[in-house]
Amino acid sequence: MNLLAHAYLSFEQPEILVGNMISDYVKGRKQYDYPNGIQQGIRLHRAIDHFTDQHPATHIGKQVFKSAVGLYAGAFMDVVYDHFLALDENELSEQDWQPYTRNVYSQLQQNIHFLPERFAAQVPHMSTHNWLYNYRYPEAIEKSFGGLVRRAKYLNDHLEAFKIFENNYDFLRNSYASFFPDVKKFAESELALLQIK
Fold it and tell me: Do the beta carbons of residue 80 and residue 74 sit within 8 Å?
């Protein structure tokens, strides 16, 4: 899951942020157990994921990783997108990303009672190690790739995928550049629709 992008595409609305961040941990009708704003965030997350999977830039980027990670290529592209978003000064400057990420952790902590147990357990680590800000650094991407491999059913090494990331860095940055303005525009309009339903 691309944590930074889902946080950022919550447009600084706390309930949307909570729903957007926990969506992968909320199955089936469980989404209706939450307040309306969090439900909207859950649905926004799912719409963003669908849009991302269908986008031509994602499809092309996934081909780069496919030989190394097969069906998990989309998950690796999610991490790649977070890396380039963390560096995107068209969105926030390096100085502004720091307070932005601190605010995300604060909002999650304030709403800890709404977070599924597995996600709530991650929040202190996310905050202490500043995962969202540190996506800007290649070593954090390597760690994230390692985490994907640990959770995958049939992968056992992240180093080949990380080498692919390094060797195709400019290509992947261009994929992000053609993708992110589209997903941001989509998320803004989708959220507006969700909030008038």
Answer: no
Q: Of 132, 121, 57, give the one whose Cα is nearest residue 92.
A: 132
Terminal-residue alpha carbon distance, the chain: 27
Question: In 3D, which of 123, 118, 120, 108 has the Cα closest to residue 38?
Answer: 108
pTM of the model: 0.95
* Domain housing 183: 3-196
Give me the DSSP letters along 143-168: HHHHHHHHHSSS----HHHHHHHHHT
Cα distances (Å, whole numbers) of residue 21 to 79, 94, 127, 140, 157? 15, 22, 14, 19, 27
Lookup: tokens for 186: 């989509």
Enumerate residues 6+ apart whose C-beta is below 8 A from 196.
none
What is the distance of C-alpha 119 from the center of its chain? 14
Q: Based on the structure, what is the number of domains in the chain?
A: 1
Tens digits of residue pLDDT in 42-82: 999 999 999 999 999 999 999 999 999 999 999 999 999 99
